[in-house]
């Protein structure tokens, strides 16, 4: 249920276990929307009241939401951090209030504060995506890259992962790169400017699906989509539709459905036993390549059967 910009979910025994505050990035992006909904559903199933709110990448908003979680006596916080360095203070504040924090999707640049950091294996996913991209685009020519938000470590990890693979092909040259901040509209606009400067590019590799879909829209407008191939990253429902229609070459699914549930399960374990049940604070979840060959196995948002 959506109330005043906050998603609330409560199960039959909702108040028995206490309030679980879930703070995501921007629910206008289907990835983060799914992250919040899935975590809230798992919390509800376990008997918690779940409150989902969003900071939209603003560390000041994030800090205020953590203050609210503390004031409301949350038993735990599930947080997708706004900034690898800038979110450390918000996490430290919750810890000082004796509220355990469980990070999902993105890391912070300090270990030992959060009880767990559960993220996609972005390096593995980027390598898988880049290998598929080369198969589709070929091993020579000029290409462009769309990058996510510089404040999110995932953006650099994916870009570096792409470069590790693509640098093995000396006749492939990246002639343009633009930051589009995970956003579809920015992906569209940045693609337009890159295309004007480099009309001979043969492909676009993107740090996420929304930027890739924005690029596809710009390429369609320019009549270039048949000759310029685009690869994505996330496994969003819109990306799946674009693969089925032949507009997107592939996407790399982040298993957000898996680690959003697991973060709540670990929070529940810690609340009950003082232990998360995980061997390490930082936990990586491998990504899955989705192409036209296996797209039919995608039955729920960000979920594919092996």
From TrEMBL:
Gene Ontology terms: cellular component: cell envelope
Any one GO molecular-function label of the UniProt entry: carbohydrate binding
Key word Signal present: yes
Boundaries of every Periplasmic binding protein domain copy: 22-272
Keyword NAD: no
Domain of life: Bacteria
Keywords tagged on the record: Signal
Main location (coarse class): other
One Pfam family matching this protein: Peripla_BP_4
InterPro entries cross-referenced by the UniProt entry: Peripla_BP_I, SBP_2_dom
Signal peptide: 1-16
Cell location: Cell envelope
UniProt family annotation: Belongs to the bacterial solute-binding protein 2 family.
Protein name: D-ribose ABC transporter substrate-binding protein
Organism the protein comes from: Kozakia baliensis
Lineage of the organism: Bacteria, Pseudomonadati, Pseudomonadota, Alphaproteobacteria, Acetobacterales
